[in-house]
Design goal:
InterPro entries: Acyl_CoA_acyltransferase, BioF2-like_GNAT_dom
CATH architecture of the largest domain: 3-Layer(aba) Sandwich
Order of helices and strands: EEHHEEEEHEEHHEHHEEEHEHEHHH
Pfam family, one: Acetyltransf_6
Organism: Caulobacter vibrioides (strain ATCC 19089 / CIP 103742 / CB 15) (Caulobacter crescentus)
Strand content: 25-35%
Shape: globular
Largest sheet: 14 strands, mixed
Protein name: BioF2-like acetyltransferase domain-containing protein
Domain BioF2-like acetyltransferase: 173-317
CATH topology of the largest domain: Aminopeptidase
Helix content: 40-55%
Number of strands: 14
Length: 401
Amino acid sequence: MQPAIHLSLTRVGVGQVDMLDVETIHPSFLSPADAALWRSLAASAEGFGNPLLGPEFAQAVGKVREDARVAVIRRGGETVGFLPFHRRPGGRARPIGAPLSDYHGLVSRPDAGLRISDVLRAAEVSVFRYSGLIDPHAVFPTSPETDRTAYLIDLTGTTVEAYLEAVRAESPKKIKNYRRLDNKLDREVGAVRLVASDFSRDAFNLLIDWKREQLARTGAHDFLRADWTRELLADLFTTRSGAMQGLMINLYAGDTLVGGHFGIRQGATYHPWIASTNPEMAAWSPGQIFFLRAIAAMPGMGLTRYDLGPGHDHYKRAYGLRTVQIGEGAATAANVAGRVAHSMESVWNLAGAHGAGPVGQLRRRMDAIASTELTMTGRVRGFVEAVAARAQRGRGEHTEA
């Protein structure tokens, strides 16, 4: 897919003499100097350390999405920040790579003094919806919207043995049972082994197939159905050089693939997107066995951070002993279109769009559909499937009652 050539430069006054220049470009047109600065800014702030917040991810997404954009923000001729996003119809914007972008935000100098409302206005965006906001420099306004919790396996300043002991101490009975199942799998199926940097295309395809089956079974939106998500993952799977690379870690019993993770690695940080297990191995709790072995293997892989991201708290919290709060909500531009968008967002908020109830579930599902599906046909199909899945869950709850 060839990127659409898009270049715009907008100047917005944010004070009597302070002018903000925002150049909006496709990631493929990012200059080497700006990419290096972006990389440096991301490395300098604790919250920006995930690969999803760097220029390499934006450029990888740009290869498969024509609507990918980067707002390059300058003041007085000096570049002070970067906001990657997707330009969607109606002046709306989504985080670049959503829903795969578990973390997103405006990467800037700590002393830049930016306001997201001014940046959005200059970028000709009325509203920017986010679900995993990282904002260490307070570019976004504080709001009553619900924060989400992300989970991180962090070996910084400790040993893997000490970390695994801390995991065991949190849930001694469960961990003892998982280790028993590990031994049982080894005896009954084949020698259990973890393969890091697994380059098997067959194994990669199996992980994708199992994940899609899981999404269909649970009624979640199939984000892997879209051409661009499959192309992005396939591109990263074959990336063997550069700062950011795809990484697949798999668990085998003999020659049988039991389960694994696929995601991106940059430096000592790994962020998996796909967590899949062989449905025929469910009796051995393969996902739990995988985690214990993957943590033990981190030093050998040169990893200190295994970033699990948000969601699925029921199993992530047992292994991700460090947590990070990320924001969910929307930011609007400092103009008329932004004020209209803000009013609409307020209605959603009053209805409970950021809660755990049905309105919140519906809004998050609609966000996933809007982020993934690039055609009206795809969005309509996703909405119909969402309604059907909700009805199916409702029937199940009624039956149990």
